Amino acid sequence: MSETALVLVAHGTRSPRGVEMIATLADAVAEQVGPTRVSFVDVLGPSPSEVLRDIAGPAVVVPAFLASGYHVHTDVPREVADSGHPSVAVTRALGPDPVLAEVLLRRLVDAGWQPGDAIVLAAAGSSDPRALRDVRRAAAMLAELAATRVRIGFVATADPRVPAVVASLRAQGEERVFIASYLLAHGLFHARLGDAGADGVAEPLGVDPTVVGLVAERYRSGIPAALRALSFQR
């Protein structure tokens, strides 16, 4: 699409399935916009700074996060600065976004959810209030689409935890409870959801055409800023 490189930044996971999913997502995005590089801010490499050092021309960094917490606000900017790359634009994170709510609902339906069933949006969790606010926005978007209230549970870091939310809904008389996995890929966090006591757990967002299109959209939105930064260096 252009000579501006796309660097997809993910969290990182020890799950081979999760790593493979991120690679597959990058390949699908590359079919739409051109060469796409993958980097990680935790667990494994390469880091964003390492990838950026290998790129000669302008670059757009797309944080593949569903909420903007520490990694988005601190890790990514630090990595860009450490790279020394002169012409980089960083887009906003993937989520929350209305199109992700559409994918969440499709995943729930595939897992057996039906209107009238309770929904728990399961997010990774964060100590950053900005990230928690983003999760609440994501839950509101899903609630609007599903036409029902969506409770929020966290896998780690924040409260309430997913099993506690599921148990609370059971105590309130909900017969069927389903978990919407607000995670991008398989890994330890998603695996924990299977033990939360729900009637069904939706798959992570994964390599859905809608997610691929959202990454491509974020990339395109960052190209002008990357090119402006390049022109300032000349």
UniProtKB/TrEMBL annotation:
Magnesium listed as a keyword: no
Task: Kindly give the SUPFAM superfamilies that the UniProt entry links to this protein.
Answer: Chelatase
**Keywords assigned by UniProt, alphabetized:** Lyase, Metal-binding
Q: Which domain of life is it from?
A: Bacteria
A Pfam family reported for this protein in Swiss-Prot or TrEMBL: CbiX
Return the PANTHER family for the record. Answer: FERROCHELATASE CHE1, SIROHYDROCHLORIN FERROCHELATASE, CHLOROPLASTIC
Name recorded for this polypeptide: Sirohydrochlorin chelatase
Native species of this protein?
Rhodococcus tibetensis
